Amino acid sequence: MDFFIFLIVLWTIGILSFPLATIFTRDLRDAGHSLARPVGIVFVSLVAWMLSSLHLVPLRAGIYVGVLALGITAVYVIRKYPRNWRPTRDMFFQEAVFFSAFALAAFFLMHKPEIYFGYSEDFMNSAFLQSILRADFLPLSDPWYAGASLPYYYFGHLAAAVLVLLSGVKAEIGYNLAVAGFFAVGVQTAFGIGVNMAEKRLYGLLAVFFTLVAGFPAGFLQILGSLCDACIQGSAAVTGSIAAVFESFDFTAATWVLPDANTFYPFFTFLQGDLHAHFLAIPFLLALIGLCIALSRRFSLATLTAALAVAGFLVGTNAWTFPAALLLIALTAYYATRQDLFLGVIVLAGCVFLTLVLSGMVGMVGLGQGTSLPNFLLLFGCFALVSIAYLVDSHTFSSRDLFLAVLVIVVLAISYAFHFPVAVLALLALPFFHRAFARGEYPAMLAGIALLLILFSEVFFINDPLGPPLERMNTVMKLYLQAWVFWGVASAYFVSRMKNRALVAGAAVLIAVMAVHPACTLLVMPGAEFMGGTGEMTLDGSAWLREQKPDEYNALSWLRETAGDGDVILEAPGDAYTYSSRVGPFTGLPTIIGWRTHEIMWGRDWKDVDLRSADADCMYLGEDDTDALLAKYNVRYILLGETEWMKYGSKPGNLTRRDNITLVFRSGTTEIYKVVSIANQVVH
Questions:
Q1: How far apart are CA 171 and CA 164, in angstroms?
Q2: β-strand partners of 678
Q3: How far apart are the C-alpha atoms of 406 and 48, rounded to whole Å?
Q4: Disulfide engineering: 541 pairs with which of 84, 115, 344, 658, CB 3.0-4.6 Å?
Q5: How many angstroms separate the CA atoms of 94 and 224, rounded?
Q6: CA–CA dist 216, 378 (Å, integer)
Q7: Confidence check: pLDDT of 36 > 50
Q8: DSSP code of 149?
């Protein structure tokens, strides 16, 4: 039932936002139907965010206002712009694609539903979602840093909360339904982009495959190595049947092709079931591409405004998308108008970037520390071959091409000499921009942007708290994922323009190669030991906790139902990817300090994080200044569970015997205490 209620909410938003989407996309074949759902989600989320942030109405009421405003807008558009609003056969086909993607995604997640602490950011993302669901006003209170807020980075979780609140499903179920829903929205949007570019459904499905299903070619080499009894790409040879080879598939190996840098492709992020920012951004990045395709065909302020609104939402979801979104909008506006103003925006952004480099906020990759050409091909080799095949198939050769070929060879030789082989991508991007601006093949620009994103991560990295040798990991992971989306859309267009049958056959082989890693991961990941191991098929992300740690589950359920919004809970300081800091993920209530390294990534200072950790330890040990610390953080409840007993042993006995603390819940060895007074002041 939860599945169908959530589906009805998604369908309702799509229906209400379709008239608005048509205003921005009149020249597209599907009239914006594929963009309606993400545009509607952005519309409702931004209205709710604005009203709540200004403290005009609580968040829940702001969501209803957003839906009402979307409905009023739909009625206005229908009355002002008369046309045949009856659904077409193409619309029904698109909805079938959307429903199929949503149903299949939910079915997969029923086999891997865990909101789990290992190999994902589930605990963090669930804490964000639960905290938003409890919030009256924004910005979001940091559930792992009581008393502080997060100014951005949670817009994608806000969009998920919109769907959960409108559907009324349990948060732990809504978490997985949101993952499935956003994946399905991305699938429909990618399908519409392919159809709008190539005018055929086949290429819509191909766009879905390239952007949201295909995976790294490295996975094919892993399987090949196992079948050939050899070690290729970090995959040990496996003796036995072919079934044994696939069952022992190490789906993590391909994500660590690059030394000290983790890389994902979109489908892998979905298979993780992780409602993380880089996953949440994908359907909206596709929506931005769709809006820019419409803008490239007819420039209008309405479409430009819609693109800017989606871009702003993207930045609030994942700030790493800002450079790509800005570049895409500016280049598209210039493509449509040839006005230098839009190029000036890029120049201005370049000046800001140079300032960041000089200030040290952006670092430079050392010689020999970038991506090697073989490793690059293990990740993007199939897209590169499809793109080269497109250039060869559609090009009329001349004497000038010989000069360009020599130039590429010279640059490649120089880049190898300086241990920067991927730097040649700067030249490879030029033919695609030429195709876009000189020949009017706009989708080729997307490949050029993808190559620039990859090139950027080979030369620069954003300075974050991750030091050597992981200093470029975040930059590579976030920009490579965006590049995959851009290049995937472009590759679908390239295949649609190929006329040589041999090249088309070659593209089909590459498609098969790209299907290996996602297919094997799809089969193996749910059974991996570090994924949680829920014993039943369910969409409830807390089922594993109920099965494996029933006392903890009971305690957290009691807190969720009993504690008031904003009540601060004392639990042991957390360590990333361990069973700790579990109050936020399963209740949405704030704690003094959660996963410490994550707080550093969000801009906290190590000094402050360490101080909070020490204060939490001090309170659990019942030291002399415990009352002052309880008052400092306004602690209402104290949790003594598995994590605390392991960390402190019997020492919290000094805390629990205090007169101002009383036991209010016990399940097995898990206990919850309430702070009833501090320094003669009653805690209400």
A1: 7
A2: 681
A3: 56
A4: 115
A5: 36
A6: 6
A7: yes
A8: E
Distance CA 126, CA 143 (A): 10
CA–CA separation, 49 vs 59, rounded Å? 7
- Tell me which architecture the domain covering 549-682 has in CATH: 3-Layer(aba) Sandwich (3.40)
**What does the alpha-carbon distance between residue 291 and residue 391 come to, in Å, rounded to a whole number?**
26
Q: Which two tokens stand for residue 28?
A: 């597209």
To 10 degrees, what angle do helices 59-80 and 2-24 make?
Answer: 50
Q: Residue 202 — φ and ψ, nearest 5°?
A: -55, -40
Q: Report yes or no: 180 and 276 within 8 Å, Cβ to Cβ.
A: no
pLDDT tens column, 617-666: 999 998 888 999 999 999 999 999 999 999 998 888 888 888 899 999 99
CA distance 621 to 654: 6
pLDDT, greater one: 430 or 423: 430
Cβ–Cβ under 8 Å, residues 10 and 25: no
Contact 313, 155 (CB under 8 A): yes
* Cβ–Cβ < 8 Å for 651, 620: yes
Per-residue pLDDT tens for 555-592? Answer: 999 999 999 988 999 999 999 999 999 999 999 999 99
Report the C-alpha gap between 111 and 180 in whole angstroms. Answer: 13
Closest listed residue to residue 10, CA positions, set 144, 117, 160, 152: 160
Q: What average pLDDT does this structure show over 313-328?
A: 96
| Residue 227: count of CB within 10 angstroms of its CB | 14
Nearest-5° angle of CA 559, CA 119, CA 586? 10
How far apart are the C-alpha atoms of 335 and 323, rounded to whole Å? 18
- Considering the entire predicted model, what is its pTM? 0.94
Supply the DSSP string of 95-128, one letter for each residue: HHHHHHHHHHHHHHHHHS----SSSSSHHHHHHH
Contact present, 548 and 121 (Cβ < 8 Å): no
Residue 675 CA to residue 658 CA, distance in Å, equals 10
Sign of CA dihedral 624, 629, 634, 638: negative
Instruction: Tell me how far apart the alpha carbons of residues 319 and 485 are, in angstroms, rounded to a whole number.
Output: 16
Write out the two tokens for 245: 């080879």
3-state secondary structure 371-433: CCHHHHHHHHHHHHHHHHHHHHHCCCCCHHHHHHHHHHHHHHHHHHHCCCHHHHHHHHHHHHH
Q: What separation, in Å, do the N-terminal and C-terminal C-alpha atoms of the chain show?
A: 39
- Distance (Å, rounded) from C-alpha 672 to C-alpha 436? 63
Three-state DSSP at 472 gives coil
93-110 pLDDT per residue, tens: 999 999 999 999 999 999
Report the run of H or E that residue 632 belongs to, with start and end.
helix 626-633
CA nearest neighbour of 170 among 675, 603, 682, 561:
561
- Given CA atoms 77, 80, 86, 92 in this order, what sign does their dihedral have? negative
Distance, CA of 590 to CA of 663 (rounded, Å): 20
Residue-by-residue DSSP string for 224-277: HHHHTTS-BTTBPP--S-HHHHHHT--TTGGGG-STT-----HHHHHHTT---H
Q: Is cis: bond before 526, omega within 30 of 0?
A: no
pLDDT at 119: 81
Banded model confidence at residue 680, pLDDT cuts 50, 70, 90: very low
